[in-house]
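Supplementary notes for students who missed Thursday's class. We covered one full example, reproduced here. Read the sequence, then the structure, then the short commentary at the end.
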Amino acid sequence: MNLSIHSSFLPHTDPEASLAFYRDALGFEVRKDVGYQGLRWITVGPAGQPDTAIVLYPPQATPGLTDAEKRAIAEMMAKGSYAMLNLATPDLDGVFAKLQAGDVEIVQEPVDQPYGVRDCAVRDPSGNMIRIQASAA
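Structure (token representation):
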């Protein structure tokens, strides 16, 4: 088999705040911005990686969710425990400094982890945990 990851989905609660975070703070390209019935799906991705994308989607648009499930998702998002994204960079300290200087919620400063990586953690405006690792040399 020849498979690749085309897109991953992260929920958002505020499309404008999410757009600002992924575009302005992380420097991702906006690939699509689609509105439908008052909701927005925004596709972003890292520059120079046109085949990799993240779709920021409104979780309330997921078919078949009960009101209780929607509340549970909203609670988990607020805690940062619903969705996570791992990114890698050759300049972890530089990326962290830029994020720290901006209006980004810092969860963890760069640290050497016992499982062999150096990383930091931030949250996007919807509460999604974003871990950024130093890529291997």
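Commentary. Strands lie at 7-11, 29-36, 39-45, 53-57, 84-89, 105-112, 118-123, 129-134. The chain has a mean pLDDT of 93. If anything here is unclear, bring it to office hours.
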